[in-house]
Amino acid sequence: AQDSLNLASFQTKVELLPKETFYLLCNVLHGTKPIKFQWFKNDQQISSSGRIVLETEPTMSMLKIYSVQYSDSGNYSCEAKNHVGSDVQSTILVVKGLNFSGFCDIF
Predict the structure, then answer these.
(1) How confident is the model over 42-62, as a mean pLDDT?
(2) φ, ψ for residue 81, nearest 5 deg
(3) Largest CA distance in the chain
(4) Spatial distance between the Cα atoms of 83 and 87, rounded to a whole number of angstroms
Protein backbone atom coordinates (compact mmCIF):
# COMPACT_ATOMS: atom_id res chain seq x y z
CA ALA A 1 0.00 0.00 0.00
CA GLN A 2 1.15 3.53 -0.69
CA ASP A 3 2.10 5.83 2.16
CA SER A 4 -0.74 8.08 3.14
CA LEU A 5 -0.01 11.77 3.47
CA ASN A 6 0.93 12.79 6.99
CA LEU A 7 1.49 16.29 8.42
CA ALA A 8 3.42 17.21 11.54
CA SER A 9 1.09 18.30 14.34
CA PHE A 10 0.40 21.97 15.03
CA GLN A 11 0.26 23.48 18.51
CA THR A 12 -3.39 23.67 19.50
CA LYS A 13 -3.16 27.35 20.44
CA VAL A 14 -0.75 30.23 19.82
CA GLU A 15 -0.94 33.46 21.83
CA LEU A 16 0.74 36.61 20.54
CA LEU A 17 0.77 40.30 21.33
CA PRO A 18 -0.19 42.89 18.70
CA LYS A 19 2.65 43.69 16.26
CA GLU A 20 4.36 40.31 16.78
CA THR A 21 4.85 37.94 13.84
CA PHE A 22 2.84 34.73 13.53
CA TYR A 23 4.67 31.80 11.92
CA LEU A 24 3.01 28.50 11.12
CA LEU A 25 4.86 25.66 9.41
CA CYS A 26 2.89 23.00 7.57
CA ASN A 27 5.39 20.16 7.25
CA VAL A 28 4.77 16.85 5.45
CA LEU A 29 6.34 14.00 7.44
CA HIS A 30 5.68 11.53 4.67
CA GLY A 31 3.71 11.44 1.46
CA THR A 32 4.37 11.18 -2.25
CA LYS A 33 5.00 14.36 -4.22
CA PRO A 34 3.56 16.39 -5.84
CA ILE A 35 1.79 17.87 -2.83
CA LYS A 36 -0.62 20.79 -2.99
CA PHE A 37 -1.00 23.06 0.04
CA GLN A 38 -3.95 25.28 0.91
CA TRP A 39 -4.29 27.61 3.88
CA PHE A 40 -7.53 28.63 5.59
CA LYS A 41 -8.62 31.07 8.29
CA ASN A 42 -11.95 30.08 9.83
CA ASP A 43 -12.49 27.83 6.78
CA GLN A 44 -11.99 30.68 4.29
CA GLN A 45 -9.04 30.19 1.95
CA ILE A 46 -6.20 32.67 2.40
CA SER A 47 -3.45 33.73 0.03
CA SER A 48 -0.42 36.03 0.17
CA SER A 49 -1.41 39.68 0.47
CA GLY A 50 -0.07 42.61 2.48
CA ARG A 51 1.00 41.35 5.90
CA ILE A 52 0.25 37.73 4.98
CA VAL A 53 3.01 35.77 3.26
CA LEU A 54 2.82 32.15 2.11
CA GLU A 55 6.03 30.36 1.17
CA THR A 56 5.65 26.91 -0.29
CA GLU A 57 8.24 24.25 -1.09
CA PRO A 58 7.72 20.65 -2.29
CA THR A 59 7.15 19.17 1.19
CA MET A 60 6.33 22.20 3.35
CA SER A 61 4.45 25.46 3.40
CA MET A 62 4.97 28.38 5.76
CA LEU A 63 2.35 30.95 6.72
CA LYS A 64 3.68 34.25 8.09
CA ILE A 65 1.53 37.12 9.31
CA TYR A 66 3.56 40.21 10.09
CA SER A 67 2.51 42.71 12.77
CA VAL A 68 -0.55 40.76 13.94
CA GLN A 69 -3.74 42.59 14.89
CA TYR A 70 -6.75 41.55 16.97
CA SER A 71 -8.62 40.84 13.74
CA ASP A 72 -6.05 38.15 12.86
CA SER A 73 -7.29 35.99 15.75
CA GLY A 74 -9.00 32.84 14.57
CA ASN A 75 -8.61 29.21 13.52
CA TYR A 76 -5.82 28.68 10.97
CA SER A 77 -5.54 25.41 9.09
CA CYS A 78 -3.30 23.92 6.45
CA GLU A 79 -4.54 21.22 4.09
CA ALA A 80 -2.07 19.14 2.12
CA LYS A 81 -3.23 16.91 -0.74
CA ASN A 82 -1.61 14.42 -3.06
CA HIS A 83 -2.91 11.64 -5.32
CA VAL A 84 -3.26 9.28 -2.34
CA GLY A 85 -5.22 11.51 0.01
CA SER A 86 -5.04 14.55 2.24
CA ASP A 87 -4.33 15.67 5.80
CA VAL A 88 -5.25 18.81 7.73
CA GLN A 89 -3.72 20.47 10.77
CA SER A 90 -5.08 23.53 12.54
CA THR A 91 -4.31 25.91 15.38
CA ILE A 92 -6.07 28.77 17.14
CA LEU A 93 -4.32 32.15 17.05
CA VAL A 94 -5.21 34.48 19.92
CA VAL A 95 -3.92 38.05 19.67
CA LYS A 96 -3.89 39.29 23.24
CA GLY A 97 -3.79 42.72 24.80
CA LEU A 98 -5.92 45.16 26.70
CA ASN A 99 -9.30 45.59 25.07
CA PHE A 100 -9.20 49.35 25.53
CA SER A 101 -5.67 49.85 24.19
CA GLY A 102 -6.95 50.85 20.75
CA PHE A 103 -9.29 53.64 21.88
CA CYS A 104 -6.69 56.40 21.60
CA ASP A 105 -6.41 55.63 17.87
CA ILE A 106 -10.14 55.99 17.35
CA PHE A 107 -10.79 59.35 19.02
Answers:
(1) 97
(2) -135, 140
(3) 63
(4) 12
